[in-house]
């Protein structure tokens, strides 16, 4: 493998961590599965749950999500939040509300200081109400299928 210097940022979102590359000059290619898998290996490399490539497509910011095994994911909620945070903090888009394009469509993003709200697209299948107990406290939430299993 040819050695090269590539800048990256590592971002954590709700316990998931991502290696983010500004790939608007197409330095990286999706066919580099082995590279993505290698840099995600914990204790042997940078280590992460996935890789995010920030690109441009048809004059829009386009975000590609790559799982730690090197395979492409159409969307990732926490990855979307990490990507939006990176886009805002790096000044790629200067507005607090903007849209990014992913393989599953357009996502609206809202930035409030260091808080990011990432709107997912319509879910598929049944929405299930779920109750869990954690440290003697009960919580109610919803299990949804966003169409991306990872």
Could you please describe the fold and organization of this structure?
The chain is mainly β. It has one domain: Diaminopimelate Epimerase, Chain A, domain 1 (Roll), CATH 3.10.310. It is built from 2 helices and 10 strands; from the N terminus they run ββαβββαβββββ. It has helices spanning 33-40, 77-89; strands at residues 9-13, 16-22, 50-57, 60-67, 72-73, 97-102, 105-112, 115-118, 124-134, 137-145. The strands form 3 sheets. Strands 1-2-3-4-5 form a 5-stranded mixed sheet, with helices on both faces. Strands 6-7-8 form a 3-stranded antiparallel sheet, with helices on one face. The longest helix has 13 residues, at 77-89. The radius of gyration is 16 Å and the shape is globular. It starts with 8 loop residues before the first strand and ends in a 5-residue tail after the last strand.
User: Spans with pLDDT under 50 lasting ≥5 residues?
Assistant: none
Radius of gyration: 16 Å
Helical content stands at 10-25%
Distance between the termini: 28 Å
Biggest beta sheet attributes:
5 strands, mixed
Q: How many structural units, i.e. domains?
A: 1
| Count of helical stretches | 2
Total number of beta strands:
10
What's this entry about, in short?
With 150 residues, the protein is mainly beta. The chain has helices spanning 33-40, 77-89; strands spanning 9-13, 16-22, 50-57, 60-67, 72-73, 97-102, 105-112, 115-118, 124-134, 137-145. It has a single domain (9-122), classed as Diaminopimelate Epimerase, Chain A, domain 1.
Q: What is the strand and helix layout of this fold?
A:
Blueprint: E1 9-13, E2 16-22, H1 33-40, E3 50-57, E4 60-67, E5 72-73, H2 77-89, E6 97-102, E7 105-112, E8 115-118, E9 124-134, E10 137-145
Parallel strand pairs: 2-3
Antiparallel strand pairs: 1-2, 3-4, 4-5, 6-7, 7-8, 9-10
